[in-house]
Amino acid sequence: MVRSLSLIHLFVILSIGYIGGALLFREISVEASESLLYFLDRRIIDQEASILWTLLSVVMFFAVAYLFSIQRKTRPIVLLIGALKGVIFGLSSSYLLSTGMGMFQYAVWWFPFQFIICFLLLIYCVVLSPPYFERMHSRKRRNLRPLPVLLTFFVCIQIVEALIYQIFIK
User: What is the model's pTM?
Assistant: First the structure.
């Protein structure tokens, strides 16, 4: 029961973040969304952008979540980092669809890989700072054993996404 509850919890966070990003795109100007998206993933705005900048911006989310998880008082913010990535996912998806990106490119490249990356970030955040219904009160130390597996899976997904971008989109 607890495992299914945590998956439902993560999907709710991701879907609310995605919808929030789509609504945010409706409320802010195109120039403001372009400047924000240019900072986070330059491939959205500029087709000739470096893959290194994209990788750096995604790794930044993982690093900030880890830094917030170190201190006990800032651990509630960790899941907020994952939710923020969901909002950016919704904002960038809305931007791409409104600027005329083809549905094939969006369905093959952007949506599935960003969805998986956001979901992996949320799982990473839950491992770093479990929600109240998963906390073990008897242990003093956190269980960080799943982190190398998650990060390895993230690197593999990022490599496949970069290859698809280079072959089909660019």
Answer: 0.89
